[in-house]
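Figure 2 data, in text form.
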Amino acid sequence: MKLSVLDQSVSLAGSTEDAAIRDTLDLAVTCERLGYHRFWLSEHHSLPTIVGSAPEILMAAVAARTSRIRIGSAGVMLPHYASLKVAEQFRVLEALAPGRIDLGVGRAPGGDMRTAQALNPHTFGTADHFPGQVQDLIAWTGGRRHKGIDAHPRGEFSPEVWVLGSSDYGAQLAAHMGLPYAFAYFFSDGQGARQAIDLYRQLYRGSERHPKASPTLCVWALAADTEAEAQYHALSRERWRVDRGRGVLRPLQSPAVVAEQPFTEAEMATVGPMRERGFVGSGPQVAQKLRQLAQDFELEELVINCWAHNPSVRRRSYELLAREFDLTSGT
C-alpha cells in the first residue's frame, strides 16, 4: 500500500509563522527520502494555526528540493480564482517537475466568509460554478485548446486533477467527471466517509486518464516509539480541537503547556471520542489501524496528516510509519 503526506504548515507557539513554511520544505525532503508517494500542501487563509496560504508557491519550492515524490495541492480553493490562471500556474509547475504534479481542488473557502470576499470580491455564490470551473481545469491542464484559449506552457506531461471533499457533493462530482477523489477523514474523525466513498464508487464514470475509481482518505495520525509518548504529543492537537470548538484559534500549544491544565469533564466530551477513533500510538499500533482502515475501505493509498509541537516528533512519526509499511522498498 502507498502512503502519502498532507502538510498544512502549522504555526507553533513559541516559534514564528515563517518558520512553519520552512519546516514544510524540510519535511518534504524527509518524506521523499522515506519513500512516501505524494506530498500535498493545503490552502487556508487568515488562520493563526494553519498558515500555508499559497500551496502553488510552496509546491515550486518543494519541486526544487526533490526529484521523485509527487507534489500537490490539497487543495486549491477554486471559487477564489479564475480557472485559466490556476491551469497556467500548474502547467508551469509541471514544467518544473515533469510527471510529478497533482492539482487537488476544493470548493470550501479555506477561511471565514469575510476573508473569502477579500480574496475575491465576487466570491459569494461562485461555489455554484465549481463544476464548470473543474471542467475548464481538466481541459486547460490537459493541454487542450478550450474556449478558444490555450494554457501554457505545454509539455509531455499534465497535472493530475483531484477532487477533495468532506461531503457527498465532492464524491458525486469526482465520480461524474471521472477524477480521483480524496475524502478529508481527519475533518470529522471519519464521519460521512463510508457514505461518500461508497457513493463515489457506485456513480463513477471512467475517464481516459482514470478508467477506474481512485479514492483515498486523508487521515490524521501520530506514531511514536511508545504509545504513552504518542498520546502525550497528541495533547497539542486535542487542545486545538477543543479550542476551535469554542471559537478560539491560535498557534499549536506544546503538550507540556496543555498537560498543566487537564481537560475538563465537558471538554472530554470532545476529546474522548477523538481518542477512541484516533490513529495514535506506537509505530506498530498505528500501522495496524491504518491497514485495517485501508482494508475496510478497499484502498490502495492513504494520505497521512500529522501535527506535533516539536518538528522532530512529526518527522519521527513519518519515519516509524515508513518503516512499518516498508516504503523505501518501492522507491
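Caption note: The chain has one domain: 2-225+280-330.
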